[in-house]
């Protein structure tokens, strides 16, 4: 009898779901590993609004945003990366990342209004990028042995603090502060390869929406008889063990409808969209949205139903909700035709003035600056017996060459047949965004990289 009643109520919500879901194309299952992606009391300690001393790495401490963090064996943040902290490109008026953020914010403000006429979603775009390791990983249920925690992939100030790897690091604390609907935007930091679409500092925007029992089922026939939660349930590919299937389907519907409206607002109403099932440690079920853009399917965001354990830990155990996250650079590069991620950090007025628009929704396509010629140099070395990581080398190149380095590619690997020593050969492409580089300039930088690689990474040069 109980099973029959549940089936009856699930069927009763189908008319609410059908108008939107019938237009979505379902993708096949794909197992993604999360690599993507502060205490809020008192709030004033977290804001990057007020001026602070320039970040600095001393012999024993890392100074950043007016706070001092003792160095230890986990410290791996570099001066080059710290120099980006506080730049806040997403808050710089008329910057392309600011344009994208403001378009998303404006859409949510206009589309989702509370009962008193106020915007339903609050926006937080000035939270400090310095977070605890617990906030960045444990609060999101990321296991202690998960590869996303690796020192080689993150920028640690010490064992307990780091530069956030995703804006999700603030999720639990914002929910704990009493917020049910919010957007977070900010700079995030990850050690990564070097090419035109990857940079160790980029910008994310994410959203969270929580539902009470009444809020979710108010429009459902006999909704007062339905519940968010069930006892003795089991986890399936469609739901978590504590959630009812009816609740999950409605939350999933609201999530996909919200994001479909957002992305079509940005790309156009005729945009073709499909959903691909995936895996994140902090949501289940989880999805990626892909859009048909210039003939190819392009992933633009990840999302899902929040893990109830995460919601419970934030003091909202009577609610369930959804969360999504997207990269601002990815959207800006696609929407505005920006070919190189380094351009976002350019101070060249020829770049910046193209985005001084009368209205944030005005269309604009980036007009390329003069393409200055590249200079290519190779570097070869024997790897040490242990402890070498490619991201360490990329970080070293970035620290010395800065934004003059356009791309680094591993072009050859060789294992000596007798000694079994391994050699790597990397090709480094140098190109200035605003002028022609000379061979002498590049030679000085390249030699500095060779010397630093031997001294800091323990490699043996083959120059």
From TrEMBL:
- A single GO molecular function term of this UniProt record: ATP binding
Subcellular location per UniProt equals: Mitochondrion matrix
Q: Where is the Aminoacyl-transfer RNA synthetases class-II family profile domain?
A: 98-358
User: Among its keywords, does the record have Aminoacyl-tRNA synthetase?
Assistant: yes
Cross-referenced Gene3D superfamilies: Bira Bifunctional Protein, Domain 2, Ferrodoxin-fold anticodon-binding domain
Q: What class of enzyme is it?
A: ligase
What is the first-listed, main subcellular location in coarse terms?
mitochondrion
Give GO terms for biological process.
Answer: phenylalanyl-tRNA aminoacylation
Q: What reaction does this enzyme carry out catalytically?
A: tRNA(Phe) + L-phenylalanine + ATP = L-phenylalanyl-tRNA(Phe) + AMP + diphosphate + H(+)
Keywords, in A-Z order:
Acetylation, Aminoacyl-tRNA synthetase, ATP-binding, Ligase, Mitochondrion, Nucleotide-binding, Protein biosynthesis, Transit peptide
The Enzyme Commission number assigned here is 6.1.1.20
SUPFAM superfamilies, from UniProt? Anticodon-binding domain of PheRS (SSF54991), Class II aaRS and biotin synthetases (SSF55681)
| GO CC annotation | mitochondrial matrix
FDX-ACB domain location is 370-462
Q: What InterPro entries does the annotation carry?
A: aa-tRNA-synth_II, aa-tRNA-synth_II/BPL/LPL, Fdx_antiC-bd, Fdx_antiC-bd_sf, Phe-tRNA-synth_IIc_mito, Phenylalanyl-tRNA_Synthase
Assembly with partners or alone: Monomer.
Family statement: Belongs to the class-II aminoacyl-tRNA synthetase family.
Function in brief = Is responsible for the charging of tRNA(Phe) with phenylalanine in mitochondrial translation. To a lesser extent, also catalyzes direct attachment of m-Tyr (an oxidized version of Phe) to tRNA(Phe), thereby opening the way for delivery of the misacylated tRNA to the ribosome and incorporation of ROS-damaged amino acid into proteins.
What is the protein named?
A: Phenylalanine--tRNA ligase, mitochondrial
| Organism of provenance | Chanos chanos (Milkfish)
Gene it is expressed from: fars2
């Amino acid at each position: 009898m109980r099973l029959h009643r549940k089936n009856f109520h699930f069927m009763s919500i189908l008319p609410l779901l059908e108008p939107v879901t019938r237009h979505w194309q379902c993708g096949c299952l794909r197992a993604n590993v999360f690599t993507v992606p502060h205490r809020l009391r008192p709030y004033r300690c977290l804001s990057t609004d007020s001026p602070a001393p320039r970040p600095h790495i001393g012999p024993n401490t890392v100074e950043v945003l007016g706070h001092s963090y003792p160095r230890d064996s986990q410290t791996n943040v570099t001066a080059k990366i710290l120099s980006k902290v506080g730049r806040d490109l997403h808050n710089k008026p008329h910057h392309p990342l600011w344009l994208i953020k403001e378009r998303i914010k404006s859409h949510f403000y206009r589309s989702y209004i509370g009962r008193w006429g106020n915007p339903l979603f609050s926006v937080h775009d000035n939270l400090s990028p310095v977070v605890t390791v617990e906030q960045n990983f444990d609060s999101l249920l990321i296991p202690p042995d998960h590869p996303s925690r690796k020192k080689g992939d993150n920028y640690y100030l010490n064992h307990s603090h780091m530069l956030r790897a995703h804006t999700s690091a603030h999720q639990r604390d914002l929910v704990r502060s009493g917020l049910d609907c919010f957007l977070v935007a900010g700079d995030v930091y990850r050690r990564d390869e070097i090419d035109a679409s990857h940079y160790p500092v980029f910008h994310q925007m994410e959203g969270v929406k929580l539902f009470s029992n009444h809020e979710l089922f108010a429009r459902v026939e006999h909704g007062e008889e339905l519940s968010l939660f069930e006892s003795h349930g089991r986890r399936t590919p469609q739901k978590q063990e504590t959630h009812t299937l009816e609740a999950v389907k409605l939350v999933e519907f609201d999530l996909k409808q919200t994001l479909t409206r957002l992305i079509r607002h940005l790309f156009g109403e005729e945009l073709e969209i499909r959903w691909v099932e995936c895996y994140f440690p902090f949501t289940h079920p989880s999805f990626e949205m892909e859009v048909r853009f210039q003939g190819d399917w392009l992933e633009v965001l990840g999302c899902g139903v929040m893990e109830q354990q995460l919601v419970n830990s934030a003091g909202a155990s009577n609610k369930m909700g959804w969360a999504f996250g997207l990269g601002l650079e990815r959207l800006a590069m696609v929407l505005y035709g920006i070919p190189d991620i380094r351009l976002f950090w350019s101070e060249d007025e020829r770049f910046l003035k193209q985005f001084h628009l009368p209205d944030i929704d005005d269309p604009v396509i980036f007009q390329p600056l003069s393409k200055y010629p590249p200079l290519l140099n190779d570097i070869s070395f024997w790897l040490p017996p242990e402890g070498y990581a490619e991201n360490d080398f990329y970080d070293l190149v970035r620290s010395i060459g800065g934004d003059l380095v356009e791309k680094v590619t591993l072009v050859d690997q060789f294992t000596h047949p007798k000694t079994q020593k391994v050699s790597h050969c990397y090709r480094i492409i140098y190109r200035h965004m605003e002028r022609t580089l000379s061979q002498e300039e590049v030679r000085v930088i390249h030699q500095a990289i060779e010397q630093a690689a031997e001294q800091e990474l323990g490699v043996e040069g083959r120059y």
